[in-house]
């Protein structure tokens, strides 16, 4: 019966494990099952783009294995188990070959996001890596060693592309980074701030190609040729694709749960199916898809209370994003989509302070690079909450 049926969490990333930890603060007794398609090791995903700077292998980054997590959480953690179907009417999930069905009292989808794979042709695609979890990271580090890589081509100059560019430079590699838009972090930063990041990375030896798309990756004698649609070709030993992520919505879709850009929820993190919740990178909460750590921590705290009998809506304060480009530190709080206002800048070399204000002078967003990142706290206090 439903009363004794377990709470089941799908996913053991920062969202799934974060929720389980918060839940156990309120409820020590309800049976808890976590199911993951990967090996269930706990790790901090943001560390994946600082591995060369900090010289950490995948094993160094793994904080605990699935067994230890299970003991700590008084939970059962099922690893290498992909969930293919949810029967929302009978509150069952089907795992593996669908021979095993698990009954849930509450189900939480914490499925994360998939990397977007740009359409690229050629015979060198097996040397195009994307690093979105600890197992990818292990493969990537192994490939770097095995292929005696000296030069890496990065597809994408956004948050992850720029962090990897900086990290690989710190690791002693040559880099060339390609982005179809006009400057570093084009969807997060206004141009003067993006240019500051670009020139700081260029001073360290990074090279950028803004404007073209990568269309093909082919093997050559002793390396790879990366073809751009402006006629240029880049020689490299390995390619990292970092063009962005997309919430994993296919399982929800296949199970008749409402989705939009993400799995849609209200502020209680309830999906359209009874007793099914969503959080983390896969969720679209009250219209917001925010693929960062701070929002999922706020979700974990609220949902843990809800699951233990105290319905609690999630709220989001202002949550600036810090970009791990030590050559030029960045903190940005993008203004809300479509908010009327204007950027103004104070520029001193690679130290750029951008403020986005409306006609009444209210601060709606900011972008800080270099030394100006020290002003983050003061500006953050002035910002309105994302979801009060
Ligand atoms: P994930 O960690 O992706 O976990 C998803 C889980 O779902 C996994 O356990 C997976 O196995 C499981 N799963 C998926 N499908 C199934 C299925 N069908 N059946 C069973 N299990 C399934 N954010 C910041 O705020 N600051 C940063 O500096 C920062 N840096 C980053 C650097 C990099 C390189 C990357 C990739 C991301 C970074 N982020 C950063 C984003 C942040 O890491 C993510 O928002 C966060 O880790 C997402 O956690 P999650 O638990 O939602 O997803």
Structure characteristics:
388 residues, alpha/beta, 5-stranded parallel sheet, 9 helices, globular, binds flavin-adenine dinucleotide
What can be said about this structure in brief?
This protein is α/β, with parallel strands linked by helices. The protein has helices at residues 14-26, 58-61, 66-73, 134-146, 159-170, 191-203, 250-254, 293-307, 376-382; strands spanning 7-10, 32-35, 76-78, 83-87, 92-95, 100-103, 106-109, 113-115, 128-129, 151-155, 174-179, 207-210, 214-220, 223-228, 233-236, 238-241, 245-247, 263-265, 276-278, 283-285, 321-323, 330-333, 342-348, 351-357, 363-369.
If you had to describe this structure to a student in words, what would you say it looks like?
There is one protein chain. The protein is an alpha/beta fold. The protein has 9 helices and 25 strands. The protein has helices at residues 14-26, 58-61, 66-73, 134-146, 159-170, 191-203, 250-254, 293-307, 376-382; strands at 7-10, 32-35, 76-78, 83-87, 92-95, 100-103, 106-109, 113-115, 128-129, 151-155, 174-179, 207-210, 214-220, 223-228, 233-236, 238-241, 245-247, 263-265, 276-278, 283-285, 321-323, 330-333, 342-348, 351-357, 363-369. A 5-stranded parallel sheet has the order 3-2-1-7-19. Strands 9-16-10-11-12 form a 5-stranded parallel sheet, with helices on one face. Strands 21-22-25-24-23 form a 5-stranded antiparallel sheet, with helices on both faces. A hairpin with a 4-residue loop joins strand 5 and strand 6 (100-103). The radius of gyration is 22 Å and the shape is globular. It starts with 6 loop residues before the first strand and ends in a 6-residue tail after the last helix. The model has no long low-confidence stretch (mean pLDDT 96). Flavin-adenine dinucleotide is lined by residues 10-16, 35-38, 45-46, 48-49, 82-83, 110-112, 132-133, 160, 248, 251, 280-281, 291-294, 296, 324.
